[in-house]
Amino acid sequence: MRIAPEQLFRDPPPACYLYGSDADAVTTAAERLMKLGDPALPRIRADCDELHRIHEEWHNPALFGPSGCIGLVRNAEAATPAQTARLIALVREVPAGSRLIIRATGTVWKRAAHKKLLALKELACCECAPPTPAQFRRRLEEEAERIGLRLEDGVVEAAAERLGGMEQAAGAWLQRLAWYDGGAGAPIPWSVAGALLGEQAPAELEQWCHAVADKSPDALVLLRRLVVDQRIAPIQMIVWLATRMQQILLYRWHQHRGGGNPTADLFGAARHQVPREARRWSAAELSTLLPRIRQAEEQLKGARHLTERIILERLVLELIAPDRQSPPG
């Protein structure tokens, strides 16, 4: 059955099929649905060759908390005939309290699997289109309010214009703002919000985050290149670094919990780099990681320009070489 996006989020069905040519719109809708429901239920993200993971989670009794899961099939457009048949069987066996989300992008309407899914009476089907400019601004405002951010006048409008409807990029931007704010609820000006937007983030910023996470001495060289040569805002650098360290913590948590692929929520180079980086850190180090970065961020907020580089260098040295007490001259 067909269903409008508004109804989909107001009253999420047990099984839903999200499709469309705009991958960003489809992915954003799928991730919004993943957040809805019992927070104690595991969230399983699987490809078409991993459907057994969702089936097993539904039918294995939980030792603690509720049984079941909210499962997302990420690449239904690539399903083989056998996988399509298994997918249809999953749609028909969603347990009470669980949910199945099927995501497909591209020209899926050309495939027989798409027509079979649309014909299922148990499946709520929704074609996802990019938001209009007005809808996009409203979603930014609503999400910022939901997570407790106070943005100065004009910030949402400026960000919406720069982001151009890219909802995944908008979500990442709001996460960076939330880290910067740290629950303080202070008004955030465009000078900060624009720096954290990420449009002008050079490739070397990602390389620097990887170098710190990998405890490489190259981190200091890259830091100076970013701050001195490229004049990247130090607050942007530290928020990017905090995001990378959060990825490492989540990876280790998924590893400890067991079951599923701990890299499932990682994308791009991070999917290959984070597993290696995670091996560099002891449990004791990880327990103090984010508080130390938060402390450095607070120091940056009140620092003069000349001391910003020193704050970052001291932080990097503490992380990659704890026995070193001060940055080299």
Structure notes:
Mean pLDDT is 86; it is low at 325-329. The strands form two sheets. Strands 2-3-4-1-5 form a five-stranded parallel β-sheet, sandwiched between helices. A two-stranded parallel ribbon has the order 6-7. Strand 3, helix 4 (81-91) and strand 4 (99-105) form a beta-alpha-beta unit. It has 329 residues and is an alpha/beta fold. Helix 8 (167-181) crosses helix 12 (234-257) and helix 12 runs antiparallel to helix 14 (283-301). It folds into three domains: 5-127, Rossmann fold, CATH 3.40.50.300; 133-195; 203-320, Up-down Bundle (Zinc Finger, Delta Prime, domain 3), CATH 1.20.272.10. It has helices at 5-10, 23-35, 51-59, 81-91, 112-118, 133-146, 155-163, 167-181, 190-195, 203-213, 218-229, 234-257, 270-278, 283-301, 305-320, and strands at 15-20, 43-46, 70-73, 99-105, 124-127, 150-151, 187-188. The N and C termini lie far apart (67 Å). The radius of gyration is 22 Å and the shape is globular. It is built from 15 helices and seven strands.
